[in-house]
Amino acid sequence: MLVARHHVLTRRDSSAERLDKSAYLLLARLDSEGPMSIGQLADAFALDTSTVNRQTAALLRADLAERVPDPDGGLARKLRITEEGAKRLAADRAFYIAGIDSVLTDWSPRDVELLSDMLARFNRSIESREGRQWPRP
User: Fold this and answer.
1) Which residue of 8, 16, 102, 104 is surrounded by the most CB atoms within 10 Å?
2) Once rounded to an integer, what is the mean pLDDT over residues 87-112?
3) What are phi and psi of 135, to 5 degrees?
4) Which residue, among 45, 84, 49, 43, has the nearest Cα to 63 in the 3D structure?
5) Are strands 65-68 and 78-81 parallel, antiparallel or unpaired?
6) 18, HSE (Cβ side, Cα atoms, 13 Å)
7) Phi, psi (5° rounding) for residue 78?
8) DSSP designation for 65
């Protein structure tokens, strides 16, 4: 709960406009995976396609993502992060990393490494309960 609270407080203290949680997550996935269909995004986040459709519509309206033909030649159009989307994602990512760095400033490098290892283990355990691999291929 405190991690979530820290995240909320950093959002409130910011003078810049930040991406909302769903936009951040979708853009991060598009940034790391490349173009994806709404169905692929829904599967990646274990969400209903109607939910992802609403969230991606907001990304399209804000020019943070764009529709492109399937690079693999499929019929479904895919979503790709735009230059503006990548810029906003990078700014938010840097902001949140700086916030985490400020919390961990007096931690030893070993303690930071242990935290990172335990969070990775925690994520793998959560995903394995749902029958999903983490990190996802």
Assistant:
1) 104
2) 92
3) -65, 150
4) 84
5) antiparallel
6) 19
7) -115, 165
8) E
CA distance to 51, 122, 135, per residue, from 48 (Å)? 5, 25, 21
| Number of residues in the chain | 137
SS3 81: strand
What's the CA gap between 120 and 132, in Å, rounded? 14
Answer yes or no: are the C-beta atoms of 26 and 118 closer than 8 Å: no
Structure-token pair, residue 110: 């070993």
What mean pLDDT value characterizes the chain?
86
How far apart are alpha carbons 131 and 58 in whole angstroms? 30
Query: Minimum mean pLDDT among 49-53, 122-126, 128-132: which range?
Result: 128-132
Token readout for 30 is 């598009």
